[in-house]
Amino acid sequence: MKILIYGINYAPEPTGIGKYTGEMAEWLAGRGHEVTVVTAPPYYPAWKVAPGYSSFLYRREIRNGVRVVRCPLWVPRRPTAVKRLLHLLSFALSGAPVVWAHAFWKPDVVFAVAPALFCAPDAWISARLCGARSWLHVQDFEVGAAGELGFLPSWAINAASILERRIFRRFDRVSSISGAMVRRLTEKGVEADRTRSLVNWVDTGRFRPDPAAGADFRRRWNIPPDVFMVLYSGNMGRKQGLDLLLKAASWLAGRKDVLFVLAGDGSERKTLESLAAGMENVRFFPLMPEEEMPSFLNAADLHLVLQRKGAADLVMPSKLTAILAVGGRFLVTAEPGTELARLAGELPSAVSLVPPENPEALAEAVTAMKAESTRGPDDASRRMAEERFGKEMVLGRLESELNALIVHGRKQC
């Protein structure tokens, strides 16, 4: 197959959408397919273009067997709602002519990744120009999340929702990363037989229960073995509501045996560091290198998967699969009936469900989990990772779906 992938985030971004799109493209290339990616320079989650790349220049590179074209974009230093829109629009404008020109390459499939939804029409046009099949993969319902979190006024959300529905309906396949998010696609008018589930995966060979590696990480980072380590690792943005985590930590300020570790980067990190000034039970870590992540996750006694109220079925935290793979125990902030709540119900030995935006309840749940903790990996979490989220299984299923889509398109012709 010849596969053209279009999306704003790509490797070597270490977390989120860029990580998964990069792994997908490289896996497909490793299977012998011709893969070209049109993307932006890496900038996430730091909101700063990585060294060696430019915000203003086009660039071509070969990365692990994948042809990559980097297009200019504007990256705001402090992203607000309006600045985020301009940021996304800048990439859509610079990327459009590149994606259209690749119609002459005659790909079999044009695969767009949302966010950014701004890019989806260009991907669809490119597919139409060359007779390719079109696939839109929704990692995040950005319009719904913007509305729930109050990023945009209601009139803008309504207009964007109408546009979103029209875009979704035009693609041959539309996928998302959880059952609830796939159901939301059908609610937006996508025919059920054109939807697919494409969950975020994990390399269960690299990420596995390893208490010895976790203990070694603690020694190197001066975390005593008898301290209950509560870890949040990932993006530090408004969607996560990490200010509430700091409020929960303040409720437990007198507990010397509980340590909250916040690791990662994002638009809210500096604000959070200011809020946590003087809190002895909170430490900030950098975004860990990929090679450190397995031991880092194994070092934690409890993981935090946090979402604000109303956002749980609009996004699915990408870190979740790695936590499961190491047999991690975690707290989830979500409302009953959401996908995250159902997950908690399937793993009663590993997961505690906490109402979102309730720091007192979060602090009480941390205390309860500490009292119940066996300080060892949870077998049910590991088993779920192996059975549902293994990398080879998930991407193998995607490859089969892509082949079937192409064959179906040829039959129609």
Task: Briefly characterize the structure.
With 413 residues, the protein is α/β, with parallel strands linked by helices.
Can you tell me about this structure?
There is one protein chain. The longest helix has 22 residues, at 391-412. This protein has 413 residues and is of the alpha/beta class. The protein is 42% helix and 17% strand. The model has no long low-confidence stretch (mean pLDDT 90). It is built from 15 helices and 14 strands. The chain starts with a strand and ends with a helix. It folds into two domains: 2-201 and 390-412, Glycogen Phosphorylase B (Rossmann fold, 3-Layer(aba) Sandwich), CATH 3.40.50.2000; 211-387, Glycogen Phosphorylase B (Rossmann fold), CATH 3.40.50. Strands 3-4-2-1-5-6-7-8 form an eight-stranded mixed β-sheet, sandwiched between helices. A six-stranded parallel β-sheet has the order 11-10-9-12-13-14, sandwiched between helices.
State the main characteristics.
413 residues, 17% strand, Rossmann fold, 2 domains, alpha/beta, six-stranded parallel β-sheet
